[in-house]
């Protein structure tokens, strides 16, 4: 960025800063959501092994969680 461009766009610096901060917060929230889904999958597996849920319940809930995880991964790859 040249000196002139820097000076002309200087009033936009706070907007760019806020935009960058928001994108970072959003990215972190998405990472936390994916980690939460993975934790739920692990807990679900433990519940099945402990006999707390049936295999049918496990399959249904696992499918729901895997679908959610796939949606989160798709959003992450699309950048939207």
Characterise this structure:
The model has no long low-confidence stretch (mean pLDDT 88). This protein is mainly alpha-helical. The chain has helices at residues 3-8, 13-49, 55-78.
List the helices and strands and how they pair.
Layout: H1 3-8, H2 13-49, H3 55-78
Number of strands: 0
Q: Using the CA coordinates, give the radius of gyration.
A: 21 Å
Mean pLDDT: 88
Low-confidence stretches: none
The amount of beta strand, in percent, is: under 5%
For the termini, the CA-CA separation is 27 Å
Total of helices = 3
Helix content class: over 70%
Describe the largest sheet. Answer: none
SSE ordering: HHH
Instruction: Assign the structural class, choosing from mainly alpha, mainly beta, alpha/beta, alpha+beta, or little secondary structure.
Output: mainly alpha
Shape: rod-shaped
What keyword list fits this structure?
single chain; 80 residues; mainly alpha; 3 helices; rod-shaped
Can I get a quick summary?
The chain has 80 residues and is mostly helical. It has 3 helices and no strands.
């Amino acid at each position: 960025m040249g000196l002139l461009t820097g000076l002309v766009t200087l009033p936009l610096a706070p907007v760019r800063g806020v935009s960058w901060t928001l994108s970072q917060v959003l990215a972190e929230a998405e990472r936390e959501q994916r980690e939460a889904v993975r934790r739920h999958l692990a807990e679900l597996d433990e519940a099945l092994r402990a006999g707390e849920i049936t295999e049918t319940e496990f399959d249904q809930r696992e499918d729901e969680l895997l679908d959610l995880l796939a949606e989160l991964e798709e959003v992450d790859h699309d950048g939207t």
